[in-house]
Design a protein that fits this description.
2 copies of one chain form a homodimer.
Chain A (H helix, E strand, L loop, with lengths): L2 E8 L3 H13 L10 E5 L4 H7 L5 H10 L2 E6 L13 H8 L4 E12 L5 E11 L9 E6 L2 E11 H23 L13 E6 L7 H14 L2 H6 L1 E6 H10 L6 E4 L1 H14 L9 E3 L4 E3 L18 H13 L3 H17 L13 H11 L1
Parallel strand pairs in A: 1-2, 1-3, 3-12, 5-10, 8-9, 8-10
Antiparallel strand pairs in A: 4-5, 4-11, 6-7, 11-12
Helix pairs in contact in A: 1-10, 1-12, 5-6, 8-9, 10-11, 11-12
The structure holds 3-isopropylmalic acid (IPM) (2 copies).
Chain lengths: ~375, ~375
């Protein structure tokens, strides 16, 4: 049975890194990737909106649902002024396809912390992906003292529980994988740990519900309780601690907006946003997506770092049942990074997108 | 006319760093501090709430309003579970006293960035201090699919304009102070710059109003337009960029919650939360407040870093018209830090709170 992948480059460097990821997928040898791959090119994005008045066409959603086993999304540009009728297509995609968790692994053998020391980071951020301020229920009011606007932030038991389940099950899965490594190669020595991020000292009701629900997932599952540790961290302290002692985190679970901010911060620790992949995960579909944006300033120059997109493609394979193919890509990328020779300008090098992509393909 | 300062240590290490700040204020020689100082001890905090059922007593508010010219607030502990009737006293204080901007200078001669290089940071964060998610209008609903909760996030033209005005006027003020320094000592070479933080690609209405309003403060003032540069930064990218190139920021203005997160992140860059002061500023009152929390794990051990509180006391003096006294404190602190000998454990030293405080007093 072939594996069909929807490709949605969208804007800016999305149009360079998604083709790069495709090239790597096509270079996979058949011993690690037994299924035939096929690709479907799909539209979305702010530029598409400017031409056609819609950022996420229904055709794209229909094709994803009827023809694809998963998809890769590039990046989307942000309008520099309010544009009537525009709504972010990646936010829409997550909601429409019920991709309820955004899984963001942040890994580096030697990340420089804010204290200048090098530490090993191996952190997995699970970002709730469907609600919080991202429900986009906003209203503008003409008040007596001028205009004001209200946005609603929604936190539900249902969504918090799904995010919590994902966090604890991934913590166990990571632990199982670590046990297979020789002790010297394990970046995390102790029991798996889940850090619950919130701001319940201010948002006692919404973040209170988030925190209680995630905790109840833990309390209600004897296996989690027996094998995983939990801790809580206020979001402001989380950003602080992440930069002081990033090696202290294993799995981190956060409501949507905090997760967005934390994952960009974590990317700074590992050297570049151009390295960090993510997977938007639902029960029946997955969309790989580099954490970086559309970077209009460097778009079209063949200098964008394709690694985040390539790793996102590997995450897609992992979640669709092709673990060996995923592993082959992760290893090939690690080898290219380890040589330190072929790197794009964001990492201080002079290589092009194409050169990095070809180097990865050669390592497969 | 004497200067009367309310002291609200509140919880944890607040009870150690506020007395330390008082000690420094009392050590000011009369040539830099012409006015007599008097102090009023005031209650608030989570521990106070546990005993008396109220976190911010009306007596404290009344005393601030009738007897004090300004105040110092220590830190407040967060309940580890939802506690009925409890509401953060610092959030209440900001609202009750209409302290509409939280001014957080983040300064370091040589901060280690995420890339391990040392860079000079001299950033001023202006955090809107009265609204956003901090209005605490939350509601819990028993829905068909389980419980859910809604919090309201309020952004008004009125509050955004006040925060914007503060940002631009501080940018000019900083520029004027820099012009008095010899060129070699200026950490910022170009025109003053204000970075507007938002997330209008998702929150087009609320953050749209924020951004348009702050921009309109700029557009409407010929002096700002002639002398200050502006740029915008999405909050997630802001955290990323702050860690990659912190020297790129002069004044940063942000809605309440983003400002909270960014300032803790910036504190990580300068070595310790224990160094970063803030001032909660209104048109007629100011409350100095260290950015750090109550740190229950180290409370009562005489090892908390008093510098953030001492610098907050200097900010209080600056804003109540005692600029020379403020400068004397800033310089004394810088001298103690520059020797690198007397430092608390958060900075890698072994000194006590009292030793650091005495060292600062000696330099006055
Ligand atoms: C483009 C934007 C809407 C998006 C988000 O905030 O989720 C991006 O920052 C991300 O992290 O995928
Ligand atoms: C204690 C808490 C309510 C407070 C805030 O979020 O404002 C603190 O983090 C701060 O930055 O002063």
């Amino acid at each position: 049975k072939p594996l069909t992948i929807g490709l949605i480059p969208a804007d800016g460097i999305g149009r360079e890194v998604i083709p790069a990821a495709r090239q790597v997928l096509e270079a996979l040898p058949s011993d690690v990737m037994p299924a035939k791959l096929s690709f479907v090119d799909l539209d979305a994005g702010f530029e598409y909106f400017q031409k056609h008045g819609v950022a996420l066409p229904t055709e794209t959603l229909a094709a994803l649902k009827s023809d694809c086993d998963g998809a890769l999304f590039g990046a989307v540009s942000s309008p520099s002024h309010k544009v009537a009728g525009y709504s972010s297509p990646i936010v829409g995609l997550r909601k429409q396809m019920d991709l309820y968790a955004n899984v963001r692994p942040v890994i580096s053998g030697a990340a420089a912390t804010a204290s200048g020391e090098k530490r090993a980071i191996d952190m997995l951020i699970i970002r709730e992906n469907t609600e919080c301020l991202y429900i986009k229920e906003e209203e503008l009011v003409d008040g007596a003292d001028g205009k004001y606007a209200i946005a609603k932030r929604r936190i539900s038991e249902f969504a918090s529980r799904r995010a919590g389940e994902m966090a604890f099950s991934m913590a166990l899965q990571r632990d199982a994988m670590r046990q297979q490594l020789p002790a010297a190669e394990r970046t995390w020595a102790g029991r798996p740990k889940v850090t619950i991020v919130h701001k319940s000292n201010v948002l006692s009701v919404t973040d209170g519900l988030w925190r209680e629900t995630v905790r109840s997932v833990y309390e209600g599952n004897p296996e989690y309780k027996a094998r995983v540790d939990i801790e809580e961290q206020l979001v402001d302290s989380m950003v602080y601690r992440m930069f002081r002692e990033p090696e202290a985190f294993d799995v981190v679970v956060a409501p949507n907006m905090y997760g967005d901010i934390i994952s960009d911060g974590a990317a700074a620790l590992v050297g570049s946003l151009g390295l960090v992949p993510s997977a938007n995960v639902g029960d029946s579909f997955v969309v790989g997506e580099p954490v970086h944006g559309s970077a209009p300033d460097i778009a079209g120059k063949n200098i964008a770092n394709p690694i985040a997109a390539i790793r996102s493609a590997a995450m897609l394979l992992e979640r669709t049942g092709y673990g060996s193919a995923a592993l082959a890509i992760y290893r090939a990328v690690d080898k290219v990074l380890a040589t330190g020779q072929i790197k794009t300008p964001d990492l201080g090098g002079k290589s092009t997108t194409s050169e990095v992509t070809e180097a990865v393909c050669k390592q497969l």
